Amino acid sequence: MTSSPETLDRSHIPWPSHEAAGKPSPWGYLLLAFLAIIFVWSYQGSEIRLSQLFSREGGGQIVAYIKRLFPPDLSANVLHETFKGAMETFAISFIGTLLAAVIALSVVFFASRNLIYSGLLYEMEPKQGWSRAMRLLPYLCARAFLNLLRTIPEMVWALIFVFLVGLGPFPGVLALGVHTGGVLGKLFGEVLEDVDPQPIESLQSTGATRLQILFYGILPQVLPQFISYTLYRWEVNIRVAAVLGFVGAGGLGQRIHIAISLFFENQLLTLIIAVYILVTLVDYLSAYLRRRVI
Amino acid sequence: MRSPALSSITRSEKSVFPYVFGLFFALALVDSWRRAGIDLVVFFEAEGRSHLWKFLTGMFPPELSWNFLSMMFRPFLETIQISMMGTLIAVGIGFPLGVLGTRTFMVGGVLNEVDVRGSPSRLALRWSGYSMVRGILSLFRSIPEFVWAFMFVRAVGLGPFPGVLAIGVAYGGMLGKVYSEIFEGVNYRPLEALQSTGANKPQIFFYGWLPQVLPNFVSYTLYRWECAVRASAILGLVGAGGLGQQIEISMRMFNFHEVLTLLIILFLMVAAVDTISAKVRAML
Q1: Which of residues 108 through 147 in chain A touch B, CB cutoff 8 A?
Q2: Is the ipTM of this complex over 0.85?
Q3: CB contacts < 8 A (A, B)
Q4: pLDDT on residue A207
Q5: Global pTM?
């Protein structure tokens, strides 16, 4: 097959064509004007006082605050307390993520369309309205449940659980687990919905039951991605676990809250350094594990 | 070619990794379980049950009186405004730092070959500038926005302003990092072509570099704006304005029906923002 230069596929080159560049569309200008109005409105509404920030007094205050942070407080009892907080934060993120994986795994199989009511597995079923509805019901319930878990932010869950079970790291674990459970449920569901149908079809043709298809045809395909997503959420969760203490859910956040409130700036710097080290360590650990798994 | 399945089997047979990993996992689990103070029976004890019951029944019906809703309108708008201004500041911080933190723009690559070759001092100068920018970006994004917000509340007082600054600084760090990654991933052929016509560096940047990355920029910035809306809705928990402050007040006063209303508002707002952002991204 011969191809002249005109017929070459240029779509992979990210380069605007001359025709596109030549015609400025009126919608673009309209959008820009709209954006400008929104920003002016937001500027007024959010009480921005840049003059304060850059004035001698305001700027001086910030510089003075930064100066007070140094040097970090490295006395033995502060270090000990910081270490305890860091371990607590790690524990919250670790158990919270595990709990999330458990929640997601126990709900997700009901929440993916191709496993519960349509697609290859159910082709041979007579299309009876009521049996379909019977399967649609758990699907919709599972979806709504995951949405509910996901849309309420971790911090609000933490506030709620602090009320329910009292102060300490435990409400933090529950908050992370519940919110991340919703997130992982959605991600797992997406993985399940675009699983490769060929192995499923061949298993089905050998007469395997649906449970057997799930264990031998579907799970081996999706498990690496499940683990990878869980590790990724763990990286997110270690950052959240570091601030959950602001609402009373233990960990480094609680100590940071106290240090800021009582103007212990030197301790604050120690704690921030601890957050930085912990987050970086977990990032590396998670990246390493992901490489091993996939 | 070996299939991935086969290679994973042979690998797991040879290595001790699964055992070591399993051991560490079990140790971490036991230690974390103890440290996190897991107390599963709490929900089955009388006190925990009564709290749960009080919370669930207290939420219904949601508070829908006009009085309350009109009072919540202002914080709702404030949340949107904080997210818009915060994202704007984040772009203002992230864009220049992202450009300066791009290795192929600052230090190596096609553009700097001629400048840098045979001049170690110039190379060292640029390298140090580049590393400093990367360090600042990493500092900005590794301190959580909650900590920034609380520190800014101390520095500039209560209200939406510290929320804007917190989102601006924390998201500036994230945007800067991602911008520089997008910058490094461009197609270098147009840049080389421009250079061969004698274009100078700003010209190459504006006519060769920017047009390639702009769609990606806009799409990622929109995604960050979605995150900023969620963040600004809860930054109020530390006194930085918006809906979060109201949620905390209602929660502390045990007005759970108000909490439910606020959660519904939050849900609708986040869903609307997601839809808008998805629509705009589809237009790109």
Answers
A1: none
A2: no
A3: 161
A4: 81
A5: 0.80
